[in-house]
Design brief:
Elements lengths: L11 E6 L5 E4 L19 E3 L23 E6 L2 E8 L8 H4 L14 E5 L7 E4 L3 E7 L5 H4 L5 H8 L13 H6 L10 H17 L8 E5 L4 E6 L19 E3 L3 E10 L3 E4 L17 H5 L40 E7 L11 H4 L3 E7 L2 E17 L2 E7 L7 E7 L7 E4 L9 E4 L11 H8 L25 E3 L3 H7 L11 E4 L1 E5 L21 E6 L6 E6 L5 E13 L3 E2 L3 E6 L10 H10 L11 E4 L1 H4 L5 H14 L7 E4 L23 H11 L3 E6 L3 E2 L4 H5 L23 E2 L5 H17 L4 E4 L19 H16 L4 E4 L4 H4 L5 E3 L25 H10 L9 E3 L13 H14 L3 E3 L8 H8 L10 E2 L13 E7 L23 H11 L21 E3 L7 E7 L6 E5 L9 H7 L5 H6 L12 E5 L4 E5 L1 H5 L4 E5 L4 E8 L6 E5 L9 E5 L5 E6 L5 E10 L8 E4 L2 E2 L2 E5 L2 E3 L2 E12 ...
Parallel strand pairs: 29-30, 29-38, 30-31, 31-34, 34-35, 35-36, 36-37, 40-41
Antiparallel strand pairs: 1-4, 1-6, 2-5, 3-21, 4-5, 6-7, 7-16, 8-9, 8-16, 10-12, 11-12, 12-14, 13-21, 14-15, 15-27, 15-28, 16-26, 17-18, 19-20, 19-23, 22-25, 23-24, 24-28, 25-26, 32-33, 39-40, 40-42, 42-47, 43-46, 44-45, 44-47, 48-51, 49-50, 50-57, 51-56, 52-53, 52-57, 54-56, 55-56
Helix pairs in contact: 12-13, 15-16, 18-19
């Protein structure tokens, strides 16, 4: 691997800053060991003895001012790694190569440990981190129930009593100072505040003060680096994915081949002093099979194992390649591995936008020590730096003198943050910068467990020097923490109390590019905005991740949350991910690359099984179901298959006597012997897959399971049963770290599949297996570990052929395990929660608004991680939903292309409401792009979704052109359609230079239609306000640009920009566009001049109304299919459209299902429409001229509506419209 500098590669570069008091000397070869000149580990290391003071001398590093910010220890970029050596002489020995490095800030003092920046990025958004790592510890015994059950933790005491446990001015919680004034504690507070504080101390004495948790936070910066090295791929690697030809680099699943840099940190705290991995003593953990189950035979990457896990590594780093300078290494600190995807200089895909914005990835390995428990890793204390430009001003009084200043571009300022929720029902969506994060309106007692993902337990007194008192810690802990500095270093870190925003797993900061003159009516589009920053984790298998952000979106922290995990084994974080996507570098949402990489990293296979179209019993019957009502609806579904091809009938909650007692059916309501098998067989006999609901990790308080196995139930830190939140009742969560619980779940799932015969499993309340609390079987496993074990158990029991729908499940944990995933809260019979529930809730309460919001905001996950389950569409008139709201629900479900479920008593659904479902069936299996996902200003609810329709899709793998031709009417059964769509929608996920995801590829958001139809866009426009509103959207978002246009331009651009650059989009017809409103069946012709003038499409919509528009470039000289009211896509219903025979236009509609409606066709005036003979199924048709577009220069035409009836017989001639014209 050759050394590289910013001068050789002007793109994205990761840099380690030079540590204070040291200088860097760049190695000429980055394949060297990179450890020459490093200090030995023994310097400054001491054992923390009980009641012994802590050494404040650190490692004897100089406190001299930092060198120039142009000096750095290492560079990492897509072309290679450059490693410097540490010099102890204090002289600046930076080479000529480092002199070329350009600082990203103008400060004379560098306050960051590493940076990720680009000298060539158009956006010039750059990020830095002030630390390499911060680890929050507590003594291991304080993580056990034997310690915490006596009394509450201080956080809970804080909330319930209102006072803290600190004495005097040592309190750093920030809350006491707020209550007592800026002076801090009682000593400096006002008299009334002092009295309140004394009363709080009295309350503590009366009620019994809770035992404190002695947390300590240890930070690592560049000066704490012991040594570092480029990483060579281990011998065990994914077949066919070895490193590049030079033999260096590593492989990360979902990312590909990477250049990597491994950093070994000094053991400042939390390391076993004797260097042994042996676990013994009072903290010994009962052995179980969880360790072998956590990641059996799984290879997430080819990063070598940590040295303490390597039997051949006796003080060295690379086994047999032990450097003599490292022979004195006795204790290990954390290891951080940074990686960037490789890219060779001659790579053919170098011009693609993705290669311009490679992600930075990194992970942490912490050595085992059973005497400490980990609360969190702070992997990034990040700052976002904006694009600046230099302004030169001339002094009017002295023209010869000038002044310069640095000014930020307004359009680069962060304006929105995408917040991702913890599990299925949690809020997800974009929030405007400065506006409060939408949260649940219910008290924490009823809702906290629904939304609590990773918890950052690092606040309070974690910086107090008293907590380093050896009396709290085992005598074998290595410690060199500098107490005096630690009290001030951490002030800028965000925690649960100080952060303004919190996002689970990942977050996306974006800029909408709006100016002060922006028209408030016009919808802001992501593709016309500024850059975006995506930061998070590509897996949630080890810990739950959290991103905390400040109000200005300029400061953010990335945490891996352990919440008291005892470090019995090596503690490894999931791969962290940071990527800045340049403005207009994406045709889809900015998160497209992150979502692809995450799906591939977790081996998601979203298109292996067909789409689900079915019925669920819940929303009409709730838990009041019986054999007769289920059988009756199954019979109606079978009869309805001539119109809607139902393929699943799902029995929801209510068949069992109690959660947990799954074999105990309600007496008198189901067949006594084999009742579930009887139902499953009856459903299967009607041509549908039987499905059943289970909550495998939940049990009712009154269940026999809870009475017989109380030791299976998770308990909180106080020793009480952990709160599961309230879904209409409280219930218990079963501990997935317990092998007996996993055996119970395995048997439950196996019974449902093998004995009962169900092919679809809806598994609910899965978060119950990882509730907060230390009352679990194995305290060395995190909540994410528990969820991983639970999901592995479920999939192993169900088998690969069973369709699993996850619900109430942590989102990141489920990737790669489930086939369908609920992505929203429950729908409901009202648009917002109804009294007595708070209507302003933005959490998990059942309502249509929350269901629609998450369905749109999580649309990017669909068909990349799984099939999105948006929940059911409610058609019955018994609800309080208006017709417009029902149509909106159907429109969003159709556009996002996920699962399609109804949940009414099918006997009571009117034909008018049922026709709404008929007009969106079948779903296309293609997911629309929310064009304002990151720029919405309406409570996280996007207003515009877009699909592409085209005659062809790019062939997948070995698919021939003939194989991707039109779907003939005789072959368009639901299963046939779904399998063909699945084959056509295959896409290459992951980030690798050989198979890079093409950001301009539309296979995921574009579906294939019959030859002759051309290409067009399908756009839904929604008004989510409670009053009528005029919405306007730029035509650049509506018209169908060609792929070549995007590649040539480098990005979508507005029509005004195109006109200014004399650029003409390939499909921006000079004859204007046909525009068809699907739900209203209205046609309008849009002149070309409208686009040239950049006039927007303006539509007035009623409250909660949605309309679907179809825009197709007009071609005046040939017949064109405009659309229909048969299917929302206005083209998916067509088997063929042919005008090749002289004076004849032949439209063959698919005839698998009964349909009745109208199609709209454009005919040129020259074709003699007045003498035309038009037939449907061989009989004369009802025809009406609805428009007479005039294109100028004497070129005119007619748009006609033809009424059609399709019998659904599948026979030849059914659904054929023949237009015979006479030439004038």
């Amino acid at each position: 691997m050759s050394a590289t500098t910013s001068g050789a590669y002007p793109g994205w570069i990761f840099r380690l800053n030079i540590p204070n008091g040291r200088s860097a000397n760049t190695n000429s070869s980055s394949t060297s060991d990179g450890v020459d000149g490093c200090d030995t580990l023994d310097e400054g290391v001491q054992l923390l003895q009980k009641n012994a003071p802590v050494n404040n001398d650190g490692y004897g590093l100089s406190s001299s001012p930092p060198p120039s910010s142009s000096s750095y220890l290492a560079e990492l970029c897509p072309h290679g790694v450059t490693v410097a050596t540490l010099s102890g002489d204090g002289k600046n020995q930076t080479s000529k190569q480092t002199d070329q490095a350009t600082p990203i800030t103008n400060s004379t003092e560098t306050k960051w440990s590493w940076s990720y920046s680009s000298q060539s990025s158009p956006s010039q958004w750059n990020v830095t981190s002030s630390k390499l790592l911060s680890v929050t510890y507590r003594p291991a015994h304080e993580a056990y129930p034997s310690y915490t059950n006596i009394s509450m933790k201080r956080e809970y005491w804080h909330k319930s009593v209102g006072t803290c446990l600190e004495k005097g001015a040592s309190c750093t919680c920030g809350k006491c100072s707020k209550r007592a004034g800026t002076g801090g504690h009682a000593k400096n507070a006002q008299p009334r505040k002092r009295r309140q504080h004394r009363w709080g101390k009295l309350k503590r004495r009366i009620t019994g003060a809770p035992k404190p948790i002695h947390r300590v936070k240890v930070s690592y910066k560049v000066e704490d680096i012991m040594f570092m090295e480029p990483v060579v791929a281990s011998e065990i690697s994914e077949p066919g994915t070895n490193a590049d030809a030079s033999g260096s680099g590593v492989w990360i699943r979902g990312i590909g081949n990477c250049h990597a840099l491994r950093i070994y940190l000094r053991p400042k705290f939390g390391t076993l002093a004797n260097g042994s991995n042996t676990v013994s003593g009072e903290n010994e953990i009962v052995a179980n099979n969880a360790e072998s189950e956590l990641h059996p035979m799984e290879k997430w990457d080819s990063i070598p194992s940590p040295p303490w896990d390597n039997e051949n590594s006796k003080g060295g780093v690379r086994g047999d390649k032990v450097d003599t300078d490292q022979k004195n290494v006795k204790h290990w600190g954390p290891i951080i591995t940074f990686a960037i995807p490789c890219q060779s200089n001659g790579d053919a895909v170098n011009a693609k936008a993705l290669q311009k914005c490679p992600p930075l990835l990194w992970k942490v390995d912490h050595p085992p020590n059973p005497h400490v428990a980990l609360d969190s890793f702070l992997l990034m204390d990040g700052a976002l730096h904006l694009h600046t430009h230099k302004e030169t001003k001339v002094d009017q009084h002295s023209p010869s003198s000038t002044t310069s200043s640095m000014t930020s571009y307004d359009y680069d300022t962060p304006t929105n943050v995408y917040i991702h929720g913890y599990q299925s029902w949690s809020f997800s969506g974009s929030v405007v910068q400065g506006e409060a994060q939408p949260k649940s309106a219910m008290p924490n007692l009823f809702s906290a467990a629904f939304n609590r993902g990773g918890m950052v337990l690092s606040g309070g007194n974690a910086h107090s020097g008293d907590n380093f008192d050896g009396d709290h810690w085992n005598e074998n802990i290595v410690a060199t923490q500098v107490n005096n500095e630690s009290e001030h270093i951490e002030e800028d870190e965000l925690n649960e109390a100080t952060a303004f925003y919190k996002s689970d797993m990942f977050a996306c900061i974006s800029s909408n590019g709006a100016t002060s003159s922006h028209d408030n009516e016009r919808i802001l589009l992501d593709e016309e905005g500024g850059p975006a920053l995506i930061v998070g984790f590509i897996a949630q298998r080890h810990q739950y991740g959290a991103v905390l952000l400040d109000k200005d979106l300029r400061h953010f922290n990335l945490y891996a949350c352990h919440e008291g995990v005892v470090a019995k084994r090596t503690v490894t974080s999931d791969w962290a991910y940071c990527q800045i996507v340049d403005a207009n570098c994406f045709d889809e949402e900015a998160m497209v690359y992150y979502v692809h990489a995450t799906g591939d990293h977790n081996e998601a296979r979203p298109m292996e099984k067909g789409l689900t179209c079915g019925w669920c019993s819940w929303y009409h019957y709730y838990s009041d179901i019986d054999h007769d009502s289920l059988s009756r609806n199954a019979h109606i579904l079978e009869k309805s298959k001539s119109s809607i091809g139902f393929n699943v009938c799902l029995i929801d909650d209510g068949y069992m006597t109690a959660w947990g007692d799954w074999t105990s059916l309600k007496p008198g309501k189901f067949v006594k012997d084999g009742g579930m098998r009887v139902l499953a067989d009856a459903i299967r006999s009607k041509g549908m897959s039987p499905g059943v609901w289970l909550a495998p990790f939940a049990c009712d308080k009154s269940s026999n399971l809870a009475k017989d196995h109380p030791d299976w139930i998770i308990r909180n830190d106080m020793g009480r049963y952990a709160n599961s939140a309230n879904c209409g009742k409280f219930f218990y969560g079963l501990d997935a770290t317990n092998p007996a619980v996993r055996k119970h779940v395995y048997d439950t799932i196996r019974r449902a599949v093998e004995e009962w015969g169900f092919e679809v499993l809806k598994l609910d309340f899965l978060y119950a297996c990882c509730l907060m609390g230390n009352g679990k079987f194995d305290p060395s496993l995190s909540r994410a570990d528990a969820m991983y074990l639970g999901l592995r158990t479920i999939r192993a029991a169900a088998g690969n052929d069973t369709f699993i729908i996850g619900c109430g499940c942590p989102i990141g944990s489920a990737v790669g395990f489930v086939d369908g995933m609920r992505v929203s809260c429950d729908t409901g019979p009202t648009f917002v929660p109804e009294f007595p529930l708070p209507h302003w809730d933005n959490g998990t309460l059942p309502a249509l608004r929350g269901m629609l919001r998450n369905t749109m905001s999580r649309a990017p996950l669909g068909h990349r991680w799984w099939h999105n389950d948006p929940d059911c569409i409610l058609l019955g008139e018994l609800t309080k939903l208006t017709n417009d709201e029902v149509v909106s629900a159907a429109s969003i479900v159709a556009m996002t292309g996920g699962m399609f479920l109804l949940s009414d008593d099918m006997e009571k659904v009117s034909e008018k409401r049922l026709s709404v479902a008929k007009r969106i069936f079948p779903l296309t299996g293609v997911t629309a792009v929310p064009l304002d996902l990151h720029s919405t200003i309406n409570g996280g609810m996007p207003s515009i979704l877009r699909l592409w329709c085209a005659e062809k899709t790019t062939p997948s793998n070995n698919t021939s052109a003939d194989e991707i031709d039109i779907i003939s009417s005789s072959e368009s059964s639901p299963s046939k359609i779904l399998h063909e769509q699945a084959s056509k929608l295959e896409f290459e996920v992951g980030y690798s230079p050989g198979n890079t995801v093409d950001p301009y590829s539309r296979e995921r958001s574009c579906f294939s239609v019959a030859s002759g139809l051309g290409s067009w866009t399908v756009v839904s426009l929604s008004n989510w306000l409670d009053h009528s509103a005029r919405l306007s959207v730029s035509f650049s978002a509506l018209v169908s640009h060609s792929i070549d246009d995007f590649v040539a331009m480098g990005a979508p651009r507005s029509v005004r920009s195109l006109a200014a650059d004399n650029a003409t989009p390939g499909e921006m017809s000079e004859h204007g566009f046909h525009c068809f409103s699907f739900w209203k069946s209205e046609y309008v012709w849009i002149p070309h001049q409208t686009l040239v003038d950049n006039n927007p499409l303006i539509k007035k919509l009623k409250p909660h109304e949605t309309e679907i528009f179809h825009l197709k470039a007009a071609e005046p000289t040939r017949p064109q299919y405009i659309g229909s009211d048969l299917h929302f896509s206005c083209g998916f219903e067509v088997a063929s459209f042919d005008w090749s025979v002289r004076d004849h236009v032949r439209v063959c509609l698919k005839n698998d299902y009964k349909r009745k409606g109208s199609i709209f066709v454009y005919l040129p005036e020259s074709k003699g429409l007045d003498k035309a003979a038009i037939t449907v199924n061989g009989a004369p048709a009802q025809v009406e001229i609805v428009a007479r577009p005039s294109f100028g220069d004497g070129c005119e035409g007619r748009v006609i509506r033809v009424d059609v009836t399709i019998e659904g017989s599948g026979v030849k001639g059914d659904g054929v419209v023949l237009i015979s014209l006479a030439v004038k």
